[in-house]
């Protein structure tokens, strides 16, 4: 074993954790402020930006990341949420959309239909998804309704800004203008939002590549590694976002990050993998257990959002994720 290489990559992995913490904190704070400044639901802002840091390595990692986003990340958000949970209309719509997309993907994969034609269709579906978000913003269909119970603690944008910037104000009110409404301030927060996305992308890159090297050093199975270790590492941004947004009461941001990331994975990323012809030997890439778990996780996510389930659901989902990891390393190991 190359101990020098192993120790170096462990150090890179730890450094990626710190970059991840900064990126997630910046992303959440400025997503909330931008959404409130524009009068648009934070769910829509997160749906538009979720998935920007996703770079799946293969079909196994793609499915593993989808499972990890729901059973691993979303469950943590539910556990850390301090009060009763109530998701807005936008979160419910896109939870249903995720279930439909997941069902389509699972059927295509099960019948070995992830070819280049289907790949093009999935990419077109992703484009339609993005267009639907812009349309929702334009028409105001998904504009933030009355604040939910979880969001009522921050009754105005001033409260949000004060909570985010106790020491150094992020918004500099100009005379005659409402704080947070000026063009300068809005552009500043948008730029900070995308800085958070860049930091999350960098963190995902560091975490995934260092995890790959660590797994190679430890001689782990490539497919199981993609479904478990890599998918866990590359969804750490979603996990930290879920914990922070859940603990701060932003349940719609938490749900939007999960739905947006998985729709991104199962449309654009799956389409690219299919176009690249990387799914010919699918029997070596996944088993039926993987597909069932992907679909069941989306179904449970849909039910949790529709019914507004809380910590008990979080415990069940987290336990299911640990069981999934255990089965991948034992019963379903390649």
From TrEMBL:
<feature type="transmembrane region" description="Helical">
    <location>
        <begin position="312"/>
        <end position="332"/>
    </location>
</feature>
<dbReference type="InterPro" id="IPR004837">
    <property type="entry name" value="NaCa_Exmemb"/>
</dbReference>
<feature type="domain" description="Sodium/calcium exchanger membrane region">
    <location>
        <begin position="56"/>
        <end position="133"/>
    </location>
</feature>
<feature type="transmembrane region" description="Helical">
    <location>
        <begin position="6"/>
        <end position="24"/>
    </location>
</feature>
<feature type="transmembrane region" description="Helical">
    <location>
        <begin position="117"/>
        <end position="138"/>
    </location>
</feature>
<comment type="similarity">
    <text>Belongs to the Ca(2+):cation antiporter (CaCA) (TC 2.A.19) family. SLC24A subfamily.</text>
</comment>
<feature type="domain" description="Sodium/calcium exchanger membrane region">
    <location>
        <begin position="193"/>
        <end position="327"/>
    </location>
</feature>
<protein>
    <recommendedName>
        <fullName>Sodium/calcium exchanger membrane region domain-containing protein</fullName>
    </recommendedName>
</protein>
<feature type="transmembrane region" description="Helical">
    <location>
        <begin position="93"/>
        <end position="111"/>
    </location>
</feature>
<dbReference type="GO" id="GO:0006874">
    <property type="term" value="P:intracellular calcium ion homeostasis"/>
</dbReference>
<dbReference type="InterPro" id="IPR004481">
    <property type="entry name" value="K/Na/Ca-exchanger"/>
</dbReference>
<dbReference type="GO" id="GO:0005886">
    <property type="term" value="C:plasma membrane"/>
</dbReference>
<keyword id="KW-0813">Transport</keyword>
<dbReference type="Pfam" id="PF01699">
    <property type="entry name" value="Na_Ca_ex"/>
</dbReference>
<keyword id="KW-0472">Membrane</keyword>
<feature type="transmembrane region" description="Helical">
    <location>
        <begin position="186"/>
        <end position="207"/>
    </location>
</feature>
<keyword id="KW-0812">Transmembrane</keyword>
<feature type="transmembrane region" description="Helical">
    <location>
        <begin position="287"/>
        <end position="306"/>
    </location>
</feature>
<feature type="transmembrane region" description="Helical">
    <location>
        <begin position="58"/>
        <end position="81"/>
    </location>
</feature>
<keyword id="KW-1133">Transmembrane helix</keyword>
<feature type="transmembrane region" description="Helical">
    <location>
        <begin position="253"/>
        <end position="275"/>
    </location>
</feature>
<dbReference type="GO" id="GO:0005262">
    <property type="term" value="F:calcium channel activity"/>
</dbReference>
<keyword id="KW-0050">Antiport</keyword>
<dbReference type="InterPro" id="IPR044880">
    <property type="entry name" value="NCX_ion-bd_dom_sf"/>
</dbReference>
<dbReference type="GO" id="GO:0008273">
    <property type="term" value="F:calcium, potassium:sodium antiporter activity"/>
</dbReference>
